[in-house]
UniProtKB/TrEMBL annotation:
It holds the Pfam family AMP-binding. It comes from Amphiprion ocellaris (Clown anemonefish). Residues 1-15 form the signal peptide. The lineage of its organism: Eukaryota, Metazoa, Chordata, Craniata, Vertebrata. One of its GO terms (molecular function) is AMP binding. Residues 550-629 form the AMP-binding enzyme C-terminal domain. This is Acetyl-coenzyme A synthetase.
Length: 682
């Protein structure tokens, strides 16, 4: 049922009257078998309170119940956020690939583990648990035979496909860490990540194929490894039929896999050994390699997958994220496989070959939970309802959203048109750093209300806190502040690879004793959380996180550029788009259009296409404080045409710099912001 008042907060899926009376509380043990021993706990909110106040009992029970251990853990946790020390389930030994594969092969070997939705529509391939275990063992043996040892880090630069999943799990099987690099990153970005991770082994494919276009992944790896002295071997799998030039360090992967045994002894790993590194952007130019470890990460991914999406045995889970991002890791691979689920690997794009692709896939694969990004939903809603209605979506039970705020229009379309008002929409807030979902509308008591555009409720074990500008905890509701998490949880990242100091400075020191997320949030009168956006210089373009400093570093490498300032501005499909202010060196005589093209070329070569500026404005100088810091806050206001709230400009070294930029913009007398920027889009 809908109430329309035009504002997000009043557009609610209403709670049933029974729930309001408190009569429809769930049977806690039936809902969550792990909770049987939690005396006196009833209902979802009771469980949440228990998970936070008796965190050790909660996580111990869940870890014993949900994971298979080679040796039981002796301590549930040993954490001190103020010192950046985070350890869970110490003394325990386990193997993540055994948890994701072998134990399901024992009970249901022929259950489908992966449904690979290849780029070519209608050519999906299914892999059973038995088949995925065999493939993983062959890769594990292959890596071992080629000298990959426990503690090494293998870089994986592949499209979303079963062999990429088998490669991740093979690393886990033999005790190596993996470092998956999104296959849209450039050779330079790949090289930087290989060097930082000190990988001697890379796994790739000859070519990728996405949206019908060929991606020369092996060639990109060839270029990257030229500046990576650590790399000794590159395994090359064949995604397409086109042969590629092989060098002395390259190994034909499938051919060599055939020679390997289908049994591979799993390594007994300590709970706190590294499972993987995943690079993400921060507010400096250098991406950070977040470190996730074995038991805590897997447990958290599994538990959130089960309860946020209400995943049940036999369901088909469709997460359309690329494996190169944390969402692909936690909800494309580890969460569903730890739960013995069937997971879809989506290799294509939402509009290939047409805007019906997702829903055609939902019908063909009978997907029960669909998990996607707001940017794709916003894009698809523009193509109209016909593309959705053409297909049968009666299999759908839950719809999920991740990566960026979902605006009310997109939420409503997702709920009404895609889900036919039958399926709860879960707007899930989390980060690469958190390992899994931390705030989401579900799990909650049956029929509990869901407010559009709000992540709402903390997951089990999560205790959010909002901080004011003086660093004090805000206690009341109807308040906004910096979002922190007040106690550790098993899924959180442990450190930044080779840079624990940066981990401390970024997450632990801003609010001592708390984990700082970098996001702002609003807590409503009812106590629900709504994410208001980043507080640092990180922007979110089509759900892809990118630091403005990274883009500036690339732009500044152009010989004609003296300096630059990059900011994000609202974009109706991408969520945020990239705006670059560029100051040229004196006596540079180049056409602006040529220079814009050149700058875009540099950014896509140094980082990736998605990081390219949508708009470039050449200016004489940038607004700076007297200490020389660029005032990006002011530039953001100028770009958003919010000139009345430019704020205090008295700290500017030369306030005339802002006026110059405003005048330059107003010469272009367009009333509508989108129109202005589209017209001048670089
Ligand atoms: C943003 C993606 C609003 C947020 C899983 C966060 C969101 C960053 C939401 C992490 C959401 C993620 N609503 N904003 N539901 N989910 N974000 O590391 O700014 O790629 O800090 O992890 O995305 O991006 P990351």
């Amino acid at each position: 049922m809908w109430l329309r008042c035009g504002c997000a907060a009043s557009l609610r899926v209403l709670a049933s009257p029974l729930r309001v009376l408190g009569l429809r509380r769930c049977n806690t043990a039936a809902f969550m078998p792990e909770s049987t021993g939690f005396g006196g706990v009833s209902g979802r909110s009771g469980l949440q309170e228990f998970s936070v106040s008796s965190s050790e009992s909660f996580w111990a029970a869940v870890a014993r119940h949900r994971l298979s251990w080679i040796r039981p853990f002796t301590a549930v946790q040993d954490c001190d956020l103020s010192r950046g020390r985070i350890r869970w389930f110490e003394g325990g030994k386990l193997n993540v690939s055994v948890n994701c594969l072998d134990r399901h092969v024992h009970t249901c070997p022929d259950r489908v583990a992966l449904m690979w939705e290849r780029d070519e529509k209608g050519s999906e391939v299914r892999y059973t648990y038995r088949e995925l275990l065999e493939m993983t063992c062959r890769v594990g043996n292959l890596l071992r035979r080629h000298g990959v040892k426990k503690g090494d880090c293998v870089t994986i630069y592949m499209p979303t496909c079963p062999l990429a999943v088998a490669s991740m799990l093979a690393c886990a099987r033999i005790g190596a860490a993996h470092n998956v690099v999104f296959a849209g990153f450039s050779a330079e970005a790949l090289a930087e990540r290989i060097r930082d991770a000190q990988s001697s082994t890379v796994i790739t494919v000859n070519q990728g194929i996405r949206g019908g276009k060929i991606l020369e992944l092996k060639k990109t790896v060839d270029t990257a490894v030229q500046s990576c002295p650590t790399v000794q071997q590159v395994f090359v799998a064949m995604r397409t039929d086109s042969p590629v030039a092989m060098t002395a360090r390259d190994i034909a992967m499938e051919e060599e896999m055939l020679k390997e045994d289908v049994v591979c002894e799993p390594a007994a790993m300590n709970s706190e050994d590294t499972l993987f590194l995943l690079y993400t952007s921060g507010s400096t130019g250098k991406p950070k390699g977040l470190v996730h470890t074995q038991a805590g990460y897997l447990l958290y991914a599994a538990l959130t997958h089960r309860y946020v999406f209400n995943y049940h045995d036999g369901d088909v889970f469709g997460c359309v994220a690329d494996i190169g991002w944390i969402t692909g890791h936690s909800y494309g691979v580890y969460g569903p496989l730890a739960n013995g689920g069937t997971t879809v690997l989506f290799e294509s794009t939402p509009v290939y070959p047409d805007p019906g692709r997702y829903w055609d896939m939902v019908e063909r694969l009978q997907i029960n939970q669909f998990y996607g990004a707001p940017t794709a939903i916003r894009l698809l809603l523009k193509f109209g309802d016909e593309w959705v209605n053409k297909y049968d979506r009666s299999s759908l039970k839950t719809l999920g959203s991740v990566g960026e705020p979902i605006n009310t229009e997109a939420w409503e379309w997702y709920y009404r048109v895609v889900g036919e008002e039958r399926c709860p929409v879960v707007d899930t807030w989390w980060q690469t750093e958190t390992g899994g979902i931390c705030i989401a509308p579900r799990p909650s008591d049956p029929d509990a209300e869901i407010v559009p555009g709000m992540a709402m409720r903390p997951f089990f074990g999560i205790k959010p806190a909002l901080m004011d500008t003086e660093g004090k905890v805000i206690s009341g509701n109807d308040a906004s502040g910096a979002l922190c998490l007040a106690q550790p949880w098993p899924g959180m990242a442990r450190t930044i690879h080779n840079d624990h100091q940066r981990f401390m400075e970024t997450y632990c020191q801003p609010y001592p004793g708390y984990f700082f997320t970098g996001d702002g949030a609003y807590r409503s009168v009812e106590g629900y959380y709504q994410i208001t956006g980043r507080l640092d210089d990180v922007i979110n373009v089509s759900g892809h996180r990118i630091g403005t400093a990274e883009i500036e570093d690339a732009v500044n490498q152009c010989p004609a550029v003296a300096e630059s300032a990059v900011i994000g501005y609202s974009h109706d499909i991408k969520g945020q788009a990239v705006f670059a202010f560029v100051v040229l060196k004196k006596n540079v005589d180049v056409e602006e259009a040529d220079l814009s093209r050149q700058l875009n070329g540099i950014v896509s070569e140094k980082i990736a296409k998605y990081a390219c500026p949508d708009f470039i404005q050449f200016v004489q100088r940038l607004p700076k404080t007297r200490s020389g810091k660029i005032m990006r806050r002011v530039l953001r206001k100028v770009v958003e045409l919010d000139l009345d709230s430019l704020g205090d400009l008295s700290t500017l070294d030369d306030p005339a710099a802002v006026q110059e930029i405003i005048q330059e913009q107003s010469k272009r007398s367009y009333t509508n912001q989108a129109q202005r920027y589209d017209l001048f889009a670089a």
